[in-house]
Write a structure and sequence with these properties.
The complex is a heterodimer.
Chain A lengths: L6 H47 L2 E2 L7 E2 L3 H9 L1 H32 L6 H15 L2 H11 L6 H8 L14 H11 L2 H13 L2 H9 L4 H29 L3 H6 L11 H11 L3 H29 L11
Antiparallel strand pairs in A: 1-2
Chain B lengths: L2 H48 L2 H6 L12 H7 L7 H32 L5 H13 L2 H14 L7 H4 L7 H11 L4 H9 L4 H12 L1 H16 L3 H6 L8 H8 L8 H33 L4
Helix pairs in contact in B: 1-14, 3-14, 4-8, 4-11, 9-10, 11-14, 13-14
Classes of the chains: A mainly alpha, B mainly alpha.
Chain lengths: ~325, ~300
């Protein structure tokens, strides 16, 4: 039916939709207001304040002093601890994150075989991750590796007649106590991988099997490409949280020995909250933000080369 | 088909079946043993908390105490500086429950605006909100601390609780995703029947999004219960300590040597987390699988 709009009804409709739109705006912003107010008070204003603070010297008690780029100069050229913290953080991100993802993928594939008891296993593998952020586990982990005592691992080594290692005091091994802790908590990337694996059509594997592809071939030719968007997502999220790791380092190693586990967030905390260098801490936070942004951007740039998205046309495979 | 052929085929089928069974056994043995190795440190902590002090390090790797004792739980509960763990648990429970109720309720309101109301600027604000998800807390921490300390809020729960009343970007995103699955016809029909947008939210949407609310509440509970940095920065008075802070102080390398009690209190602090995990595992798995939230 051809619609013949007479002028009055059209304008009436416009008035009506205008009124509805205004009402929608009113109600929309009413419901949005908690977040909007919070965003201005607890996010936007602090960001701006932090940007200004980065160029000041401020100890919380005397008024802040503008010192230009001095914080950054000190950070990059004078502060040896700063560079040790950068080194420790990169070491951690480039070992712990891949390790955690590899373990997560391996276990996810193990659990994706449609066998019985999978939900029980899934819960068991996930349990360390849910407990992992807690102080209790960090305290326990310290005792696993040594602490003030011999530690659980050394006890086992000794009873096997092997020499024990002072894991936490040795500058070469201390960071690995934290990397293993990270690898141990692979639960959430595992669940995300598991959800991704379930999306891969079984026909693909069947077709590959007919073509004579072995297990490894099926993994590299089908599983990895089909899973690449999920791998990408996990990589981005885990990398960001890797750069920010604090609690575990604070509790298990405290940055010792010789600053080999002095992660960036830990050093930032020490500067800002133990010696009250609020300006320097803010400058450090902005550099951290910049580094995370650059690495995230790099990952996104690289994704076109290795992340496979099925065409949106709906013709899969 | 001859009888001999049928017999051969059934024999092959049988051998295939036994092969499959052996495979299954190998699989379950492998997975169970690796689960056990994974969980061993946790079992070890629980076992150590039940061992007698002399036994904790002399029979360290054993998971079965030669004599079970609850002495460490009694000693540990006494806490330090005349403050028992009852105080710390009370603090943690109040902190976790207020924070959870506040952030889930406010996030649900905001999610309703994003998912169901077409207001001007909706897309813009939604992308701003997603951007804040990427923002490291370190950037906000220092200015927030300065303001809260100028307000005299150090050694109160205000800096930890008040921001929770303004929605949490993770939870808003999670609930928006869930609300988008509710057909628009449903609230349109209610609107035609004369129900206001506010009425629709309370009468139709809220009851339908319960699973998302539960998921958000579980995560909120975990993050608050295990929160360490927030209390570490803002709470210096031991009377205000959360369980996390208390265990940190209690196990401080310079003072803590009573490992039985430290393990006992650590084990106890995981009990609420564990109960919630067992009870709501399904929601957790769903929440992580669909949104990628870290647990």
């Amino acid at each position: 039916m051809v619609q013949t709009n007479s002028v009055p009804s059209a304008s009436r409709r416009r008035i009506k939709t205008g009124r509805i739109q205004r009402q929608n705006n009113l109600i929309g912003y009413l419901f949005l207001s908690p977040w909007l107010v919070g965003f201005f008070l607890f996010t936007l204003l602090p960001i701006l304040a932090s940007l200004v603070l980065a160029f000041t010297d401020y100890d919380l008690f005397t008024p802040p002093q503008w010192i230009g780029l001095n914080n950054f100069k000190r950070m990059f050229f004078e502060d040896g601890r700063y560079w040790r913290s950068v080194r420790a953080t990169f070491y951690y991100v480039f070992t712990a994150v891949p390790l955690r993802l590899v373990v997560a993928l391996a276990v996810a594939m193990l659990l994706n075989q449609g066998r019985r008891l999978v939900s029980v296993y899934r819960a068991a593998y996930y349990a360390p991750s849910i407990l992992g952020g807690s102080v209790a586990v960090a305290v326990m982990w310290r005792q696993v590796w040594g602490g003030r005592n011999l530690g659980l691992i050394n006890f086992i080594l000794q009873s096997l007649g092997l020499p024990y290692v002072n894991w936490l005091a040795n500058p070469r091994t201390a960071i690995w106590t934290l990397i293993t802790l990270a690898a141990w908590q692979f639960g959430s990337p595992m669940l995300i991988f598991l959800a991704g694996l379930k999306q891969i059509p079984v026909e693909l594997y069947e077709a590959a099997a007919i073509d004579g592809a072995g297990g490894w071939g099926r993994f590299t030719r089908i599983t990895l490409p089909m899973l690449s968007p999920v791998i990408f997502f996990n990589l981005v999220m885990q990398m960001i949280s890797g750069f920010l790791v604090f609690t575990q380092a604070y509790l298990v190693t405290g940055g010792r020995p010789l600053d080999t586990t002095l992660f960036y967030a830990l050093y930032l905390y020490l500067r800002a909250f133990e010696v009250h260098e609020m300006g320097y801490g803010s400058a450090m936070a902005w550099v951290l933000l910049g580094v995370i942004a650059i690495f995230t951007a790099l990952l996104f740039r690289s994704s076109s080369a290795w992340v496979y998205y099925e065409s949106g046309g709906g013709i899969g495979g | 088909m001859s009888a001999a052929e049928t017999g051969k085929r059934s024999a092959r089928r049988l051998s295939k079946k036994t092969k499959e069974r052996i495979k299954a056994v190998v699989y379950h043995v492998m997975v169970t043993s690796s689960c056990f190795i994974m969980l061993y440190p946790i079992f070890w902590m629980v076992a150590s908390s039940l061992k007698e002090t002399s036994e904790i390090w002399t029979r360290a790797s054993s998971l079965i105490p030669s004599k079970v004792t609850f002495q460490h739980y009694i000693e540990g509960w006494a806490g330090f500086g005349n403050i028992t763990f009852a105080t710390f648990y009370k603090n943690s429970l109040i902190y976790a429950s207020v924070a959870t109720i506040a952030s889930v309720a406010s996030s649900a309101c905001v999610a309703y605006a994003f998912a169901k109301i077409r207001f001007a600027g909706r897309g813009f604000w939604f992308s701003v909100m997603l951007l804040t998800l990427m923002l490291p807390g370190q950037v906000l921490m220092i200015p927030q601390y300065i303001v809260f300390s100028k307000l005299g809020w150090i050694n109160t729960y205000r800096p930890l609780l008040i921001p929770r009343f303004f929605g949490n970007a993770f939870f808003i995103f999670l609930i928006v995703q869930f609300m988008r699955g509710i057909p628009n016809e449903l609230d349109e029909a209610a609107e035609i029947d004369g129900c206001s947008k506010i009425g629709i939210f309370f009468k139709i949407i809220l009851p339908l999004i319960q699973p998302a609310l539960i998921t958000a509440a579980i995560f909120s509970f975990y993050w608050t219960w295990e929160d360490f940095m927030g209390p570490l920065i803002y709470l210096q008075n031991p009377h205000l300590y959360t369980v996390s802070l208390a265990i940190r102080s209690y196990s401080d390398p310079s003072t803590g040597t009573d490992w039985g009690s430290i393990f006992a209190m650590s084990t106890l602090s995981l009990v609420p987390v564990f109960i919630v995990f067992i009870a709501f595992q399904r929601y957790l798995v769903q929440g992580i699988s669909t949104t990628g939230i870290r647990g």
